[in-house]
Predict the 3D structure of the following.
Amino acid sequence: QVQLVESGGGLVQAGGSLRLSCAASGRPLSNYAMGWFRQARGKEREFVAAISWSGSSTYYADSVKGRFTISRDNAKNLVYLQINSLKPEDTGVYCCAADRAGSGRPYGNDGSGMNYWGKGTLVTVSS
């Protein structure tokens, strides 16, 4: 079992930045590909970014390319999502997830393939 806990969300003005963190416990994160998903109120969950177990491959949704950066520190069992140039439409609950198949890929919005999920951290972007 892997437990995932996100942090770093908050209220930020449009154009601002945040760094989200996903802390894992239970098993070494180095075995897993990791992903970030978000869900706005009243909308479907959306894939945001993913990273392979080694960090050598990353994948992004078109809506966040150039603004979001996913990274990981396997020694610390942490995964990060740096989000820049925030827009009001980035508002939502951001969840991290772990995939035992460590190569990673651009996951579908349904998160199929992910084995473990965190509960999320809320990001609110004001205009």
About this structure: Residues 88 and 125 are 5 Å apart (CA to CA). The mean pLDDT is 96.
